[in-house]
Amino acid sequence: MTDQDELDGILAAHAGREGALLPILHDVQAAFGHVSESAIRHIAQALNLTRAEVHGVVSFYHDFHEEPETRPVLKLCRAESCQARGVEALAAALPDNPRVKVETVYCLGLCSVGPAAMIGHEVHARLDAARLGALVESLA
Amino acid sequence: MTVVRISDDAAALACGANAVAAAFAKAGCTIERVSSWGMHWLEPLAEIDGPNGRMGFGPLTPDDVASVLAGTSGKAIGTIAEHPFIARQQRFTFARAGKTRPLSLEDYAATGGWAGLKRARELGPEATIAEVTQSGLRGRGGAGFPAGIKWTTVAKAAGPVKYIVCNADEGDSATFADRMVMEGDPFMLIEGMAIAGHAVGACKGYIYVRSEYPHAIAKLNAAIALAVPHIAPFEVEVRVGAGAYVCGEETSLLNSLEGKRGEVRAKPPLPALEGLFGKPTVVNNVLTLAAVPWIMANGGAAYAEVGFGRSRGTMPIQLAGNVKHGGLFEVGFGVTLGELVNEIGGGTASGRPVRAVQVGGPLGAYHPPADFHLPFDYEAFAAADGLIGHAGLTVFDETADMSAQARFAMSFCAAESCGKCTPCRIGSTRGVELIDRIRARTGRQADKVETLPQMHNARKAPRTLGDEIELLEDLCETMKFGSLCALGGFTPYPVLSALKHWPEDFGMPAPSQEAAE
Ligand SMILES: Cc1cc2nc3c(=O)[nH]c(=O)nc-3n(C[C@H](O)[C@H](O)[C@H](O)COP(=O)(O)O)c2cc1C
Ligand code: SF4
Ligand code: FES
Question: Which cofactor does it need (chain A) (predicted)?
Answer without folding.
Answer: [2Fe-2S] cluster
